[in-house]
Structure of Alcohol dehydrogenase:
Amino acid sequence: MKSWRFTGTNEPLQLTELPEPIAAPGQVVVDVKAAGICHTDVGILTDPGWMTMLAQVPVTLGHEDAGVISQVGEGVNDFHVGDRVAICPTTPAGCPGSSFDGGFGPKIMVGTQALVRIPDEVDFVNGAAATDAGMTSYAAVVRRGGVKAGDKVGIIGLGGLGQIGARVAHLLGAEVYVAEIKEDIWPLAKELGALDARRSIKDYPKGFFDVIVDFAGFGDTTADAVDVVKLGGVVVLVGMGRLETTIDSKSLIVNQCDLRGSNGGTPDDIRGIYELMRTGKLTPVTTTVSFDEVPEAIERLERGEVVGRLVISYE
């Protein structure tokens, strides 16, 4: 089977012929129907700081995966051939695209503890988007941010994660405000339920926000959030657009800001996203590409030319 392999920083992905996996005991093989591409993949390809986060190199990238079980290994009784499943990348089974080969190839072998059933009402493209973008956004807003009805919530960055986070916050009953430098996607913010969209979080009044979730993470975006959040407010950092930032210590101390990192989520977070998708209240914007277009699609993502979540569709 042909797979897109990462071989080293600043090296192009290599299209490589690999043997098809055979389900080991306690494992299943999933035929991939959709696999997300995210800024993590851009970072892995361009920033050597990501090398320490990979359990193996070379590796087939693709950590946002949904598909159909085609094989079950010995001892697997709770899942069956034909089940529609997604792979949670944060369980002890490991992360596809890092711990083992992921969805930039047509088949994945994975332990059952990573599997989340996809409701019939959710298609594979959204099923894949939920495994990282959805899970991460839901966890950042709900668990780490503690967002509740009536909160004033700032969302920085309306990319694949930010658009889901904004919609989740709105569905929780919060007042949502977006900071996004691309003015052409401000109308999307309103469609998601946001009350306003501006270029920077600093364009809103100081002390206005109860919670700010930074889905961009470009250093200055996080510093700006710490500057403007209300006294005792919460800033959640999710995005890794840059791997470092400089925070104004005075703002952090005077605002008594609670600055929290948020990384991934749990299978329950994916199930929470699926429930919103199943009811039709959450329909993320996605851009689909074919398997052959993967390298070009990653370049488009790096240039900021993709709206919503970028997903490979194998169907």
Q: What stands out?
A: The chain has two domains: 2-129+265-313, 146-261. Helices lie at 39-46, 124-144, 160-171, 186-191, 220-228, 249-254, 267-278, 294-302. The CA atoms of residues 137 and 165 lie 5 Å apart. The first strand starts at residue 2 and ends at 6.
